[in-house]
Design brief:
Blueprint (H helix, E strand, L loop, with lengths): L9 E6 L2 H14 L10 E6 L5 E3 L2 E3 L1 H11 L16 H8 L11 H15 L4 H11 L8 E5 L6 E7 L5 E5 H7 L8 E5 L10 H6 L3 E4 L8 H6 L3 H7 L4 E4 L2 E2 L2 E2 L4 H7 L6 H7 L6 E4 L17 E4 L7 H15 L13
Parallel strand pairs: 1-2, 1-9, 2-5, 9-10, 10-13, 13-14
Antiparallel strand pairs: 3-4, 6-7, 6-8, 11-12
Bound molecules: ligand FO1.
The site of ligand FO1 has 18 residues, from helix 2 and helix 6.
């Protein structure tokens, strides 16, 4: 049955932080141009939680907060993370006690989110329920058409094995590698602590299996989308979904659009190219959008997969441009262009 954009759609998005949040902003802007606007549809965002870190006894969830603040209108727009109009009195005082984590900036307003989250987690509420509670203030969740689902309620953390400047080889938290070292220390190994016992969070498998369209936005393919797909049962759910799966390349003209996905791809021995990243999702994709700077790939088959590559502008320079990307993804996924699709899941 062909789903048309004028019918109520259920769209599920696997998201990391900044790139994913920016794409979803465009997706929602596109849905607002359709009959009934975004609330006529349902958007399920499954977010990576392995970037999470405990600092000062508080649980910080960067990808959840980036999506929540961005869609809720509270994000610092230049950074793409943290709160707008921030102050840093608490961080300054912590530094005076020599208790600061100077390489990881936490603003006063941001601290409030971590204090509420940590209190609710301490009372025994799972991260999914805590996220729903926090999202209410930001206009997301039940009744709004947009839900933010942690990939798992279990504790998972990305750690990176590096050789520090002092010659010592050790595993450091992803945030220390990413923010303190700007991913400049070669990552000898990227390890997902706790992934073996992690199970999909409430609603995650259902949102993948029952949606009308599944989108892989231009998030980090290794430490964001790759991590979500590593949660037991998630990749199988994507393979088995009846929904078309459309991905958008985070690599444009051989470079990450932002962030340091190249350092992550190198760490797993994958070339930094739109084509190589498609290969990471080959078993999942019906369509892979690459930027026009990679137009040579247009119309070709995804390496090792059955999906097809389409070239379209992928620089999320502003909301209208990003909305156009989302519109293309919907048009392809919803069958607007026909073309051979992945055979029905066996
Ligand atoms: N990114 C930085 O580059 N520098 C920071 O000091 C920093 C602090 C920070 C605090 C809270 C938060 O939610 C995100 C923060 N980020 C910071 C971004 C974060 O490292 C990345 O957005 C994700 O973890 C990567 O997807």
């Amino acid at each position: 049955m062909r789903i048309r954009e004028d019918m109520a759609m259920h769209i599920t998005v696997l998201s990391g932080g900044i790139g994913g949040a920016r794409f979803i902003t465009g997706l929602l802007a596109h849905l607002d141009t359709l009959p009934g606007g975004r609330s006529a549809h349902r958007v399920s965002i499954i977010a990576n939680t392995a970037d999470d870190i405990t600092l000062h006894g508080l649980r910080v969830c960067p990808d959840l907060d980036t999506v929540m603040y961005t869609l809720g209108g509270g994000v610092n727009p230049q950074q793409g993370w943290g709160r707008s109009d921030e102050s840093f009195s608490v961080a300054t005082e912590l530094a005076h006690y020599d208790a600061g984590v100077e390489w990881f900036t936490l603003g006063d307003k941001d601290f409030a989110t971590h204090i509420v989250r940590t209190r609710l987690l301490g009372l025994g509420y799972p991260l999914s329920q805590v996220t729903t509670a926090l999202c209410r203030r930001w206009g997301l969740g039940p009744g709004t058409g947009v839900e933010l689902l942690p990939m798992t309620d279990s504790g998972v953390e990305t750690h990176v094995v590096v050789t520090e400047p002092d010659g010592e080889r050790r595993a450091i938290h992803f945030q220390e590698w990413w923010v303190r070292h700007h991913a400049a220390l070669p990552a000898e190994q990227i390890v997902l602590i706790g992934i073996e016992s992690a199970t999909p969070g409430p609603g995650v498998v259902e949102a993948i299996r029952n949606c009308d369209l599944l989108l892989l936005p231009p998030s980090n393919p290794v430490v964001s989308i790759g991590t979500i797909l590593s949660v037991t049962g998630v990749r199988d759910a994507v393979r088995g979904t009846r929904a078309p799966v459309v991905g958008l390349s985070p690599i444009v003209g051989g470079r990450p659009v932002r962030g340091m996905a190249d350092a992550c791809l190198t760490a797993i021995g994958v070339e930094t190219s739109a084509k190589a990243v498609a290969g990471l999702y080959a078993d999942l994709l019906d369509w892979w959008l690459v930027d026009t700077s990679d137009a040579g790939l247009d119309g070709t088959q995804i390496p090792g997969g059955r999906g097809r590559i389409v070239a379209t502008p992928l620089l999320m320079s502003d909301v209208p441009t990003t909305a156009a990307m989302a519109a293309t993804a919907l048009r392809l996924g919803l069958g607007g262009d026909g073309g051979d699709r992945r055979p029905a899941a066996s």
